[in-house]
Each structure stands twice: as structure tokens, then as C-alpha cells.
Amino acid sequence: MTPSVLVSGAGVAGTTAAYWLARHGLRVTVVERSSGLRSSGNPVDVRGPALPVAREMGVLAALRERATHADGMRVVDAAGRTIARLPMQTEDGAVEIPRADLAATLYEAARDHADFRFDDAIAALEPGATGVDVTFDRGAPERFDLVIGADGLHSAVRRLAFGPDPELVRHLGVWVATLPLGEPADDPRHVLLYNEPGRVVSIHPSRGEALVACIFRGPARPGLDHRDTAEHRRIVAEAYAGAGWRVPELLAKLPGADVYFDSVSRVHLPAWTRGRITLTGDAASCVSLFGDGSSLAMAGAHTLAAALAGAGDDLASGLRRYEAEHRARTDAKIRGAGRAAALVVPKTRLGLAARNAGARVLSFVQDRRTPAAA
Ligand SMILES: Cc1cc2nc3c(=O)[nH]c(=O)nc-3n(C[C@H](O)[C@H](O)[C@H](O)COP(=O)(O)OP(=O)(O)OC[C@H]3O[C@@H](n4cnc5c(N)ncnc54)[C@H](O)[C@@H]3O)c2cc1C
């Protein structure tokens, strides 16, 4: 009989996994906690190992159509004056796209190949030698040959299969909140970045309305409910109290906006698999904001499906191959995540001044190389 797979989470990793598992002939069900796809999230890059995955899925053209076209970054002061310019990191063929558009494009590619069930979640997992018995919050219980946790940073599958081990997830001292601006950006080519010690705001031009990201330092909040959106808005408003530039105007848009709010965390597990349960995407190895989380999620999901298809009935060897291949991509990124946090959100005035001075030097060097862009 065709093996059955349950994927938890219809995000970037879950939709990619669903598409490829189905293409390899498996029977795929996806359970997604939200009632639909979310509109929030900042632009993310599809690059490196994610590009061939997107190409083979036939979605590269759709991603390019939905891409943002920012080609540089302007660091501004409280009066909105440019104090430094930074180039965007580019790679041949890479696509920068709002996260919501990436998720929607991948879902459109996968939806006819798998049974997507929104507004439901796994409540319990009972692993056995020949399958995993799954209880859902809403749907009837079912048995699957394999369960894949693609349910993000706060993965329920990880908690249920590996236990609530706080050692596995490390808050990097930074929080992120994103929301749509509700209008196009004034500057369609540049990301605007305004920094104060310990807090950053950016406005990222997009095809339609621009996207706002608030990235700020703050301690871990162990008791925080990751679905309490009112509390998330309160935390963001408190973190940015008294901030300059356009911040008061941007904060006024918080109520009523689709706000994505989360801790910037590192997820690092010694093993991604327990029997017939495995993890992929942020659930397995999260570097979120600072390390190609979306590209790695796509590449990992593709590798997982290919390894399972190549292993035939030997599920365990397929899962071992997936982990060996994909860990080679994620481990180096995970090690660099802490350093990136220090660069994006300097803690002190001195750190901020040093970062901006570095950016000015970079602008100067760039201007001399490309005088037309000055
Ligand atoms: C709305 C949203 C906005 C984001 N914005 C940004 C951003 O601006 N910057 C950034 O760096 N990263 C952002 N991320 C995270 C980023 O998308 C991921 O780091 C990356 O794409 C890896 O993808 P993933 O599929 O592993 O996780 P995600 O893309 O986070 O997808 C996980 C999916 O699982 C679902 N889910 C969660 N818990 C359960 C559960 N118990 N049962 C079933 N489904 C569940 C979620 O609703 C989501 O659809 C965002 C994620 C989301 C969901």
C-alpha cells in the first residue's frame, strides 16, 4: 500500500515537503493550525540550494513576479536624513520575496497533490513499530506511516516527540515583529533602516504595500503565549516607546494589522528523528532572521522527500540520509546567528556608532567603485 505521511504545518517547509513527497508517490496529509495563509512577514530570500528546488517545482517564474525590487539599504537618522548606504547581499538568480507570497506560491504548487486540513492541529502522537497513531484537536484520529513536524520554531511535533526541552531552543536576545505598512513605500528601491541602541525599524518596499519590521533586544519570556496577539502588540509598543523617526506613526498601525511576532531563536537538536517522527524547517534547525531560514526550509524539505523516496521500504536509512545531507547546510548557519544579531541590533550607542561608521566606509568604497550610483 502507498505509505501515508502526515505533515504538521503548511508554512515554507511543510508545503515544499508536501509537494515533493506527493511527487515521489506518497499519500500526504497536511494539518495547519491557522485557518488560512497569513499576510504578514518581511521579505525573505530564495537562494542557494532553494533555487533549483523552486525551479523544479515550476514556481520560479511566479516567485519572480512577486519579488520585491529593493537594491540597497539606506540607514536614516531621526530626521530621515541618509547617514549611510549599504548594498543588499545579492546572489545570481536569487529572489527576494515577501514571506507571505513565498508561502502562498508554494501552497498553490502543493495544494492539488496533498490533503490540506486548515484550522486543526496534532493533539497527541502514539508511536508504534508500524505506524504513528495521531489524535487531532478537531478531526478523527488516524494512523500514519510517518509524521513530519514542519510546524516552525514552536513545533508541537518536536514537543510531543522530544519533550519540552528548553535546551533545544535558545533565545538570541532579539525579538522581531512585522506588519504591512498599509501603503506603498516612499522610496521603491531602498530599504529604510532606523536604529536606536537595542531597537531597529525598517520599511521594506514591496510590489504593493511596504512591509515594516521591528527588531529589538529583549530577554526571553518563558511564559509568553505565542498566540496572544494583544500581548504581542503591547510588547512591541512598550519596546518602542519614545523612539524617533516615523516610529509613532508606524506603531499606530499595530492595532488591526496582521502582526507576526516572535523570538529570534536558535533551534539545535542532536537528532531530528525519533522512530517514525522527524522534523524539518525551523522545527529542526532554526536560524530564523539571520541565516536563510526560508531557503534552508525549502532545501531541507526537498532533501527529506528525495531521501525517503530513494530508501524505499527502509524508512530509517532514508531519514538518516536526510539528516546527514541537510545538517551539512544548517550547522554553519546556526553558529553564525549570534554574530548577525549583534550587527543588526547593536546594544549600545557605541556599538551603533561603530556599526554605522562601518556602513559609511562601505558606502564610500561602493561609491568609488560605482560613481553613477552616488
Ligand atoms: C506568518 C509568518 C510570518 C513570518 N515572518 C517572518 C519574518 O518576517 N522574518 C523571518 O525571519 N521569519 C519569518 N517567519 C518565519 C519563517 O517563515 C521561517 O523561519 C522559515 O520560512 C522556515 O519555515 P518553516 O516552514 O519551518 O516555518 P514557518 O514558515 O514558521 O511555518 C510553520 C507553519 O506551521 C504552522 N504551525 C505552527 N504550529 C502548528 C501546530 N501546532 N500545528 C499545525 N501547524 C502549526 C504555522 O502556522 C506555519 O504555517 C514567519 C513565519 C510565519 C508563520
Write up what this structure looks like.
- The chain is an alpha/beta fold.
- It folds into 2 domains: 4-68 and 94-168 and 265-341, FAD/NAD(P)-binding domain; 170-264 and 342-373, D-Amino Acid Oxidase, Chain A, domain 2, CATH 3.30.9.30.
- Helices cover 35% and strands 26% of the residues.
- It has 10 helices and 18 strands.
- The chain has helices at 12-23, 50-57, 60-65, 99-110, 156-162, 229-239, 247-251, 293-311, 315-344, 349-369, and strands at residues 4-8, 27-32, 43-46, 72-76, 82-87, 95-98, 115-118, 122-127, 132-136, 142-144, 146-149, 169-180, 190-196, 199-204, 211-217, 260-267, 273-274, 277-279.
- The strands form 4 sheets. Strands 5-4-13-14-15-12-16 form a 7-stranded mixed beta sheet, sandwiched between helices. A 6-stranded mixed beta sheet has the order 7-2-1-11-18-17, sandwiched between helices. A 3-stranded antiparallel beta sheet has the order 8-9-10.
- A hairpin with a 2-residue loop joins β13 (190-196) and β14 (199-204).
- α1 (12-23) runs parallel beside α4 (99-110) and α1 (12-23) runs parallel beside α8.
- Mean pLDDT is 89; it is low at 370-374.
- Flavin-adenine dinucleotide (FAD) binds next to α1, β2, β12 and α8.
